[in-house]
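tool=predict chain=A
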Amino acid sequence: MQILVIEDDKRISDFLIKGLEENGYLVTLCRSAEEVLANYLNIAWDLLIVDIMLPSMDGRQLVSTLRYKKCHAPVLMLSALNTVQDKVDSLDLGADDYLTKPFHFDELLSRIKALTRRSQQGFEIPKNQFIQVGALKIDKDQYKVFDSDQEIELSPREFKLLMYLVENQNKAVSRIQILNAVWGINFDNQTNVVDVYISYVRNKIEKHQKYIFTVKGVGYLFKLAK
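tool=predict ok
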């Protein structure tokens, strides 16, 4: 399950990412509403966790904009604001649930399970479980990848990297974009962790066909070679 977290407080975002990944979720972090609208609007997220107090455009404005743009993913709002009117306003603008800070992580997990359960029962536009790209078949629900029906063993981080590249197929993405989407935390811009993991994934998926291309001065591009 892929969760997009929109939270500008590093302490809270680190806490969320650590806890969610330990429970088996694939997590991407954005630190502003503008970043979501610019880079992540067309990805089929299973859930969005949105902080209300964001810089510039706040969380409620973001949710309203996402609903206007036909984003149907369940939204869980996080906020230190705890009045009834705060909750009503958020729900009226398109949020599906509202959790007040501070909160117990077990309660957050319970809310996530409830929202995604509702989504799977028909409150969400159905999404295909499988992605087929060339000889690769990706099972999004089981986090498995097959090459001509032979399973490829990918680590959770490698799988998340592959999914990000596939979801941005035919679009060059920078190392910084990959760092933010796949690792969800700020890294030194000079780190080579992206290149290392690209190499890992290439070695595993490109036995019979090339998929990942280096774009000089930019980053990487996932496409089917002609």
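The domain at 2-123 is CATH 3.40.50.2300 (Rossmann fold). The helical segments are 10-22, 33-39, 59-68, 84-92, 105-123, 156-167, 175-183, 193-205.
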